[in-house]
Amino acid sequence: MNNSSIAHKPEEPEVFQKRRGELTQIVEAINGVEASAEWQKLKNLVLDGVVANLERLLVNESSRKEICPPEIYRLQGQLVWARRYADLRKLSETFRLQLEKIKNQINEKNPRDGAL
Q1: Confidence at residue 57, expressed as pLDDT on a 0 to 100 scale
Q2: Do the Cβ atoms of 17 and 102 come closer than 8 Å?
Q3: pLDDT tens for residues 24-45?
Q4: Is pLDDT above 60 for 115?
Q5: Minimal CA–CA distance to 23: which of 115, 95, 103?
Q6: Residue 40: which of 92, 96, 91, 86 has the closest Cα?
Q7: I need a surface site. Which of 63, 65, 103, 110 has the fewest CB within 10 A?
Q8: What is the pLDDT of residue 22?
Q9: What is the Cα–Cα distance from 12 to 106, expressed in whole angstroms?
Q10: Which of 37, 2, 29 has the alpha carbon at shortest distance from 92?
């Protein structure tokens, strides 16, 4: 039985290349949005206090006599979301790290020096 076709997937580099292109576009778009005056205005008016407010609510909820786990989990989820998406620099860096991983995977699959 020949298993060589199972071990080798020729479409993997294409998938990595496609994902690399998507991540590059995402990072460029985030950087463009972050540089805009409209984003700065929105950030100042809406998002600057969100993380601090959620942290305060989480502390208040966890200090009650009767703790409500679903509410704690809901606030924790919102806090994770707010920390990730309220700061576009952090979000851009997250996608940049994913892009670097994809580049490394592409280089591992297709070494330029011909070594396997």
Answers
A1: 94
A2: no
A3: 999 999 999 999 999 989 888 8
A4: no
A5: 95
A6: 86
A7: 65
A8: 92
A9: 9
A10: 29
Statement: the pTM of the whole predicted model exceeds 0.85: no
Tokens of 31: 């950087």
109 phi and psi angles, rounded to 5 deg: -75, -35
Q: Distances in Å between the alpha carbon of 39 and those of 25, 46, 53, 81, 87?
A: 18, 10, 20, 18, 11
Q: How far from the centroid of its chain's Cα atoms is residue 111's Cα? A: 27
DSSP secondary structure of 15-27: HHHHHHHHHHHHH
The label of the residue with tokens 């205005």 reads 41
Q: How far apart are alpha carbons 66 and 3 in whole angstroms?
A: 60
Find out whether 54 and 72 touch, Cβ atoms under 8 Å.
no
Question: What pLDDT sits at residue 78?
Answer: 93
d(CA 30, CA 48): 18
User: According to the model, what pLDDT value does residue 112 have?
Assistant: 62
